[in-house]
Amino acid sequence: MTPRPRTWKELPPTITAAHRALVSAMREIRECSPRTQADIARGAHQQPTTLSNHLNAGRIPEETLLRDFYAVIEKDASGTGPLPHTLETLLALRIHAKKKHCECCAVGYPSTLSEAGQPQPASHIVANPERLRARRLRRRARRRLVPVPQEHIRVPVPPEEGDRHPGHTAELTWPETELVARYLAGGHNRDADLLLWQAGVSYPAADIVMAVGSCRAAGLHDAAEAILINVADRADKQAVLNIAAALDDAGRREDVTFMLTAAARATQ
Questions:
Q1: Averaged over 132-143, what is the pLDDT?
Q2: What values do phi and psi take at 135, rounded to 5?
């Protein structure tokens, strides 16, 4: 039985971009079940009004409710192919949606509407030109990632140049590089953004060097810069400095400059 497409309510303009991404993913998953929403809710051990609230951006679901919701849909869709998003992606989107962002950050940055109905900054701080430039830098890295043809994903390891340390040839082997490229080529920018965000905010220094170098080698320069910008957003500034030192040791001085510039603008 093929599920009938639903007509969804328009999401509130005041929710964050991260919350919007989570709700959109949940809606896409919900479409894979032929059952009524009330039946799905009962199977997920929650009230129908609770599930409706989650699917209309009333609130961010708890992890257990999200897992139960996914398990019900996955069972309903058994035999019809994979769901449009994995459970891991959904849980990561939830964490991202709950993260508190600063005023200059594009992801999770809310907008309000003026009386004339035109979008206005949520804070007067963005009137500061330097702060605005930092926010635009993040938007470019997260939203303007350019799809790369598959034939450009694999590249030979270049000969050692300058003072690049020979031990860092492993930077060309970040396993997620091809996955990011496939997401971008298929128009799944949100999934690519999530992988790049996870790398930037959680990877240790050595893995950041590997991920950035691998993206650069594959021609995914905007993806590499997205990772660096997410590193710059870390609250642990000592970790940022450690990553900068690792990049410098690998001969990636332009990446060091880019990352530290992004970090400086974020604190202005």
A1: 48
A2: -65, -40
Q: Are 218 and 251 in contact (CB under 8 A)?
A: no
Question: Taking all residues of the chain, what is their mean pLDDT, rounded to a whole number?
Answer: 75
Residues whose CB falls within 8 Å of the CB of residue 264, separated by 6 or more in sequence, listed in order? none
Tokens of 237: 């500034």
User: In terms of Cα–Cα distance, which of 168, 141, 143 is closest to 157?
Assistant: 168
Q: For residue range 37-56, what is the model confidence (pLDDT) as tens digits?
A: 999 999 998 898 999 999 99
Q: What is the pLDDT of residue 254?
A: 92
The verdict on pTM exceeding 0.90 is: no
pLDDT in tens, 150-179: 443 344 344 444 444 433 444 446 888 888
For residues 114, 120, 123, 126, the Cα torsion angle rounded to the nearest 10 degrees is -150
- The dihedral region occupied by 79, where left means phi > 0, alpha psi between -120 and 50, and beta the remainder, is left
Assigned token pair, 45: 């051990």
Write the secondary structure of the chain as one string of H (helix), E (strand) and C (coil).
CCCCCCCCCCCCCCCCHHHHHHHHHHHHHHCCCCCCHHHHHHHCCCCHHHHHHHHCCCCCCCHHHHHHHHHHHHHHCCCCCCCCCCHHHHHHHHHHHHCCCCCCCCCCCCEEECCCCCEEECCHHHHCHHHHHHHHHHHHHHHCCCCCCHHHCCCCCCCCCCCCCHHHHHHHHCCCHHHHHHHHHCCCHHHHHHHHHHHHHHCCHHHHHHHHHHHHHCCCHHHHHHHHHHHHCCCCHHHHHHHHHHHHHCCCHHHHHHHHHHHHHHCC
Tokens of 211: 């991920």
Note the Cα 127 to chain centre separation in Å: 26
